Amino acid sequence: MFTSKHKIRSALFALSLALIVLGLLFLVNAMGAARIFPAFYDIENVLAKYIVVIVTMACGIMLFSNLATLVEEKKLRNGLTIGITTFSTVLTVPLVYVFIAIFPAKFNGAIGPVGKIMTIDKIIDGFVAWFGNGAFLTVVLVFMLILSIVFIAFPLVTGVLAVKGKTIKVGKRPDSGKFGIYLAPLPVIAKQEAENK
Question: Alpha-carbon distance 175 to 46, whole Å?
Answer without folding.
Answer: 49
